[in-house]
Amino acid sequence: MIGRGSHRLRLGRFSEPGRLYLLTTVTRNRTPLFKHLCYARAVIQQLRLTATHRQCQSLAWVLMPDHLHWLITLGHCSLGELMREFKSRSSCALYRQGAEHQRIWQPGFHDRALRRDEQMRSLARYIIANPIRAGLVTRVSDYPHWDCVWLNAPRSGDKATSPVPAQHTPSPLHAPGAENRPPPYATRDAAGNATTG
User: Which domain CATH number covers 84?
Assistant: First the structure.
């Protein structure tokens, strides 16, 4: 739980535009808000809006019942600005969906700067496999709240169907398999099919 020592998380934090980061943020008191589909979709819409606002490029993410893992390329803002705006917008979206008007997210977040030569596809697989490790599902395709620019939704088994692009930071609209990717503001149903809403 991030609490009295959360200021220590900011010590030495450096935001470098164009750099890859793995971000993790947790709901207040680890409340499993996102087990409710309408709440999960509201947060996913806000994740997708960050790309529209050019704050970052989302490469992979998974929204767990009580936290978010998010692999990004940072745009022209700081990590603090990105997370502050995301948390604010997502909280407002949740209130509109009927969430109780209290703090949604715990203060602070965890970040890990990544080198371009790290295995991004392996890290993306690790991120989206969180629901399996948490015992929520037995296959990635059974969990609806994830996305990855390098992987299509697995239909049989959980194998990637598109290779990692050479530059490691593909445009989400031009990534291999983009024609099979869900439309903006979409999640996946239990069968792995894109759903809008």
Answer: 3.30.70.1290
What are the strands, taking DSSP E only, across the chain? 20-26, 56-63, 67-74, 110-114, 146-148, 186-188, 194-196
Task: Give the Cα separation of 195 and 101 in Å (integer).
Answer: 28
Task: Please name the residue that has the structure tokens 């997210």.
Answer: 105
Contact 125, 46 (CB under 8 A): no
Is there a domain that residue 8 lies in?
no
CA-to-CA distance for 169 and 120, rounded, in angstroms?
9
pLDDT in tens, 168-182: 333 333 333 333 434
Phi, psi angles (nearest 5°) of residue 111: -135, 150
| CB-based contact 44:183 (threshold 8 Å) | no
Residue 6 inside a domain? The answer is: no
Task: Please count the structural domains in the chain.
Answer: 1
Query: Does any domain span residue 3?
Result: no
Q: What is the pLDDT of residues 12-69, one digit of tens each?
A: 567 899 999 999 999 999 999 999 999 999 999 999 998 888 899 999 999 999 999 9
pTM of the predicted model, to two decimals?
Answer: 0.72
